[in-house]
Amino acid sequence: MKTGTTAVWTALAVSASLMHAAAQQPTAARQSGSYSLSGTIADHEGKPLGGAEVSLIEHDSATRLVRCDTAGRFELRSLPTANVKLHIRRLGFASRYVDVAITGADHHSVVVIELDAAATELAGVSVVDVANEPDMRLREYYGRKSNNAFGHYIDGSTIEARRPQYVSEMLRSVAGASVTPSGRIGYTVRLRGCPPLVWLDGVRVPGAQLDELIQPAEVAAMEIYNSFAGIPAQYFDRSATCGTILVWTRAK
Fold first, then answer.
1. Rounded Cα distance, 219 and 161, in Å
2. Are 74 and 148 in the same domain?
3. Rounded to the nearest 5 degrees, what angle is found at the Cα of 103, between the Cα atoms of 100 and 109?
4. 47 and 82 share a domain?
5. Nearest Cα to 213, choosing from 240, 191, 245, 236?
6. Do both 99 and 173 map to the same domain?
7. pTM of the shown model
8. How many domains does the chain have?
9. Segments forming the whole domain that contains residue 52
């Protein structure tokens, strides 16, 4: 009887364990399942902003970028978590970072994100005096331009004077750079034969091409490094074996 009782209790324990595991499977699936997010980018009057760029930010880097359609709509699928951070950009509007919590029972949420119109900037004077430059990013840029001979530096005033259709055209004169037509937007840039790593306002954007990220009128300055030499320590990345491009946008 004792042996039989032990066998019964063992069978019951195994059965309970299996039932508990089965009960946990849906929860595990929900935890490991992907999330999705869709929405519309608009101004404060509710007018959709077609062509706005929506970047997914993870660990201070843009890991994915989508462009809104003509109705301002976008969609991001296969998101790893329910809490995501987005960076929205649109020419003529102040860029914006937004934290979104996906709360839908089906792991999907819909959002409407409004952007503030940026004040119109008058073309003409470009301030280059480090002592009077209010933007710390550009102070550092002009400091490196004066003291770091390893980089190639392009000011916003130079871009204004040349009036390129695409930002990448400004790199035609950079040693080691090649600019070839892209099958998507503008041109494809390569440094020493392969794609460089691009940073936009201090945010790492792996796999991005300049013309997909920004338009000439938005650029305040650019730094191009075709090797590891001279790259500022905070932007040094060992994966950037083909070079690094730092892009600084105009203050909104």
1. 13
2. no
3. 70
4. yes
5. 245
6. no
7. 0.53
8. 2
9. 35-114
